[in-house]
């Protein structure tokens, strides 16, 4: 190496050295070097008051976070969407003046984007993660965005901590590992040191975080909002989406394998269902609390780490959403859609939930850089269906060609137009709420309970669901290298359940907790997925057959399955026509090379005689994996020789010869979805 090159390299290293910063042991400052006295709470008007715009630290921190990645979304980057329509069942005039919630004959267009949170655009879809469930209503009064998740609570109580949460769960910055996973040190270190996350962590370690389908998961608005009626009377409200097909999950081993077999599993499922005319349906529900009852609960209704138990505040079902059209262009629609919880219509307003208050600032700021400027509302997917008029002009991506010389309010040259609309004319008027208090960086003491609802969630689970949660903690913390972090998490979740903490402590080799555990005995049956309604429609059943199968019987069984909306798909030795004993024909869409057990909800081993003896071994392995994933299995004729005797005598395994009786029993098993108490062989 020449001396000149050495000098150049040394100079470059010296130059770079001036930019290298080690933050360990230093005091927290703003980017301007001002030392920060508090990084847990945004500045509010009183402990339960709204966040103040003068909080320069919060705005700087959130602005920097919003602009960290371009053009991909920083969170919810991996998403898929569809168009549809919403109809209210009955007028909600008693509670809100929002027009789209008044007339049951009116169909409101919607656009819904489902997403994972942690992964980038190329990541797998069946990872353990919360799922975004964002709905844009194109109402006659303007766009209303219900921007929620498939989990009703969140990790943090104040938006100022959102960048910290996402930094912790994203791939670690020193090696960019792992992708789309929370099973690593920084996430669990965040959890252990931010114990308000306990409730959300219980949900993400449950089966809710590995949904079977976007079509089979609930959605929640998460925050407390207000409904305001024509008289100006307000009620607190939480929003729910209830899937008509019921809520179902994958099992963890199955979810991991699907990530490799089909990383597009969820988007493919949604797209194919719509193409097949099996339109996903969700009923909209609301939980409503009178303003005078705000403080009548053992939790703060504004705390985003708390839910309102359905047994205490029933969910009123008020309408249905149907997704009936796939997008034409993923980039133009799914990627360019801009949601914002601040996009509301008259009759829907905000609460002082500090996480919601921060989101009202953050979303617009994010879209400015991701979509290239202030005119993202003019992109076709974001345009309201009603006309819009204001004095805003120019900017990147401007499409509107405004006529006239006036671009300001209060003018005589254009007769003072466009002019504000009165409340009677449909103008949005914010709900008048008395707000007073000292400007403080603090959190209300009513937000201090971090474990009672996490314990309630645990108490509400079935035995199988509890074991899945223990297994999830064991896997996640088994990937954590820091023994200290592992032990901190064990000790933390002893406050939720000694059974839980002891269970995963033993699995990861940590010390058992010394805490006395939670004294909470309350449960909420609605939280268990085992208690949700179940329908067999749209479940996929792999039908394993070979030539010379029993034609009349198989045909009858397939007809029975299809009559219930179940979707059979044929697997055989080769693609193409398979002939039955009566010369009937079925077309095989898969072989064992192109299909996998984890991609189906149930297995029907119909029988037949294969030329290749390896077919029987493949069929047996295929069925056994489904058995290990607790799925329904039906077998007839030669299919009985493809399963183990121990499998044949287990729950959820239907063996039969009579097509009508067999079909009925097999459909019942498919409806049940899983058989958790099955003996593993």
CATH fold annotation of the largest domain: Catalase HpII,  Chain A, domain 1
Rounded Rg: 28 Å
Q: Give average pLDDT, whole number.
A: 92
> Termini distance?
65 Å
Regions with little confidence, pLDDT below 50 for 5+ residues:
none
Query: Beta fraction of the residues?
Result: 15-25%
Salient structural properties:
single chain; 681 residues; alpha+beta; Catalase HpII,  Chain A, domain 1; Hemocyanin, N-terminal domain; Rossmann fold; 3 domains; 10-stranded antiparallel beta sheet; 5-stranded parallel beta sheet; 17 helices; 27% helix
Written description of the protein model:
Residues 1-24, 509-534 are annotated as: Disordered. Belongs to the catalase family. HPII subfamily. Residues 29-417 form the Catalase core domain. It is a single chain. Strands 2, 3, 4, 5, 6, 7, 8, 9, 10 and 11 form a 10-stranded antiparallel β-sheet that branches. Strands 14-13-17-18-19 form a 5-stranded parallel β-sheet, sandwiched between helices. It has a two-stranded antiparallel ribbon with strand order 1-12. The chain is globular and about 85 Å long. It starts with a helix and ends in a 9-residue tail after the last helix. The protein contains 17 helices and 19 strands. β17, α15 (614-628) and β18 form a beta-alpha-beta unit. It folds into 3 domains: 43-378, Beta Barrel (Catalase HpII,  Chain A, domain 1), CATH 2.40.180.10; 461-530, Catalase, four-helical domain (Hemocyanin, N-terminal domain); 536-672, Rossmann fold (3-Layer(aba) Sandwich). It is of the alpha+beta class and 681 residues long.
């Amino acid at each position: 190496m020449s001396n000149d090159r050495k000098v150049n390299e040394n100079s470059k290293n010296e130059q770079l050295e001036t930019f290298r910063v080690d933050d360990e042991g230093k005091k927290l400052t703003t980017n301007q070097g001002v030392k920060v006295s508090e990084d847990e709470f945004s500045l509010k008007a009183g402990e339960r008051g709204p966040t103040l715009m003068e909080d320069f630290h919060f705005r700087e921190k959130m602005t920097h976070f919003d602009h960290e990645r371009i053009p991909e979304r920083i969170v919810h980057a991996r998403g898929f969407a569809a168009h549809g329509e919403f109809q209210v069942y009955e007028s909600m005039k008693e509670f809100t003046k929002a027009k789209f919630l008044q007339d049951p004959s009116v169909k409101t267009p919607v656009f819904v984007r489902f997403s994972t949170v942690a992964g980038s655009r190329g990541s797998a879809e069946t990872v353990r993660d919360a799922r975004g469930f964002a709905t844009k209503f194109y109402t006659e009064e303007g766009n209303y965005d219900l921007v929620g998740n498939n989990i009703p609570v969140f990790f943090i109580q104040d938006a100022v901590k959102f960048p910290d949460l996402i930094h912790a769960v994203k791939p670690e910055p020193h090696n960019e590992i792992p992708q789309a996973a929370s099973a690593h040190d920084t996430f669990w270190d965040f959890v252990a040191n931010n114990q308000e996350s306990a409730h959300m962590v219980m949900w993400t370690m449950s089966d809710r975080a590995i949904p079977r389908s976007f079509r089979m998961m609930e959605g929640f608005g998460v925050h407390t909002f207000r409904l305001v009626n024509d008289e100006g009377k307000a009620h607190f409200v939480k929003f729910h989406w209830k899937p008509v097909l019921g809520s179902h999950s994958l099992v963890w081993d199955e979810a991991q394998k699907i990530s490799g077999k089909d990383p597009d599993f969820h988007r493919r499922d949604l797209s194919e269902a719509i193409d097949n005319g099996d339109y996903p349906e969700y009923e909209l529900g609301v939980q409503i609390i009178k303003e005078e009852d705000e403080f009548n609960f053992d939790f703060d209704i504004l705390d985003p780490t708390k839910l309102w138990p359905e047994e205490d505040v029933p969910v009123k079902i008020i309408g249905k959403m149907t997704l009936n059209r796939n997008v034409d262009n993923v980039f133009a629609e799914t990627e360019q859609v801009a949601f914002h919880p601040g996009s509301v219509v008259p009759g829907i307003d905000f609460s002082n939930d500090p996480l919601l208050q921060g989101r009202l600032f953050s979303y617009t700021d994010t879209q400015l850089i991701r979509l290239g400027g202030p005119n993202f509302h003019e992109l076709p997917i974001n345009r309201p269906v009603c006309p819009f008029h204001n004095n805003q002009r120019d900017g990147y991506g401007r499409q509107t060609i405004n006529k006239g010389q006036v671009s300001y309010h209060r003018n005589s040259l254009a007769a003072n137009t466009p002019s504000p609309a009165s409340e009677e004319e449909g103008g949005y008027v914010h709900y008048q709420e008395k707000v007073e208090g000292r400007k403080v960086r603090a959190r209300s003491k009513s937000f201090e309970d971090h474990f009672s609802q996490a314990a309630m969630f645990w108490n509400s689970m079935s035995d199988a669901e509890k074991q899945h949660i223990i297994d999830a903690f064991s896997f996640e913390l088994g990937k954590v290298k820091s023994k200290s972090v592992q032990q901190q998490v064990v000790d933390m979740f002893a406050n939720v359940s000694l059974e839980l903490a002891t269970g995963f402590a033993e699995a990861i080799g940590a010390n058992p907790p010394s805490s006395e555990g939670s004294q909470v005995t309350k449960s909420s049956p609605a939280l268990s997925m085992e208690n949700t309604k179940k329908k067999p429609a749209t479940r996929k059943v792999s039908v394993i057959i070979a030539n010379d199968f029993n034609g009349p019987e198989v045909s009858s069984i397939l007809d029975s399955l299809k009559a219930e909306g179940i979707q059979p798909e044929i697997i055989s030795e080769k693609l193409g026509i398979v002939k039955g004993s009566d010369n009937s024909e079925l077309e095989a869409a898969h072989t064992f090379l192109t299909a996998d057990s984890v991609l189906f909800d149930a297995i029907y081993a119909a029988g037949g005689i294969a030329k290749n003896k390896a077919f029987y071994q493949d069929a047996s392995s295929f069925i056994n994996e489904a058995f290990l994933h607790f799925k329904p299995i039906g077998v007839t004729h030669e299919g009985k020789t493809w399963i183990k005797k121990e499998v044949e005598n287990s729950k959820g395994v239907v063996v039969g010869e009579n097509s009508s009786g067999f079909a009925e029993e097999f459909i019942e098993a498919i409806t049940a979805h899983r058989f958790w108490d099955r003996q593993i062989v």
